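Can't paste images in this forum, so I'm doing it all in text. The chain is below; anyone willing to post the predicted structure tokens underneath?
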Amino acid sequence: MQDDFYELSFENSIKYKMYLPFKDSDYIQKTIFHTKAPYEIEMLKDMITRIKPNSNILDIGMNIANHSLFLAAHNFKIFAFEANKKMIDIARKSIEINGFEDRIFIYEMGVSDKEERAYYKKENPYNFGGMSLTLLNEEETKDDYIQCKSIDSLNIQDEISLIKLDIEGMEDKALRGLKALILKNRPLIYVEANYVGDLIKVDRILSSFNYIHMDIFGSSPTHLYYPIEKLSQNELFKNISYKQALTRLDYTHYKQNNFIHNNLQNILNLDRKLEKEILDIKKEFLKLLNKDKEIKELKNTIARHKKMLCFRWGKSLLSAIKNPFKFIILPFILINDYKKFKRDLKKD
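Text version of the structure:
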């Protein structure tokens, strides 16, 4: 087990160790291991510049304590919430080896806007942080369920300066269950919302609390919200100008560094690469017309390429770009391609 502890160090002489038992498979642990830095380091550095030393923080969606450990190393006190028992066990080992038991306090529970039960449908060993809870109906029974509660029901008395919220699609419910704490403490809020629909729900709730969107971090976007009364008129003006500039850039020929554009660009790049490979194969095919054995092998190679999921997605994407209706239903087309791909694999 000692072999799975790795030290992270920083320019300000701060260092600590992290337990990474799944560094070869889990996305976050693998990223930390290879970069020798905490996951989402840019956002973490931003956090510590915006609040006073020794402040109290809520880390909702602790995972392996990536954010909590960094903040504890900088002398903040963290109330960490996590529903996944396996992640909690990993986090505890990191907390213990660093002696952070008096700085990080773990709540083993799901976070919602009321008391309810939930469970994980399936473990994802390649991305534990991407696992989302499925809520149980009142009539449903399950022995190994996870109890969910609102954070307001815990009646936390400490003054909270910052909230980091990343619980895979339940952020809106968590925010509703945090209303009293937010209205009382007016903390800064860093909340993940990968998709437009999720961001709209989050933004409506936080707007009703008189919060304003200020910045975005990471490839899985985390959004910084500020209490409007903490911003000067000049800061509000700069924020509006910044948003207008982003909107205008969205309609220029420049490539945007955001989650949707990056993923679409990756699919297009894969498609171009596959097209080139298939053209090369076709050229070879013409050279080998009189060689039966080579022709059969080449046909098999082409067939394998056409069965590849990225080829199907690339083909569907190119078709959708030319057809506005297909572009609107692109997610459903991609899901259908994936189902056909799985069926073909079973046949093979």
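The longest helix spans residues 259-287. Confidence is low (pLDDT under 50) at residues 248-257.
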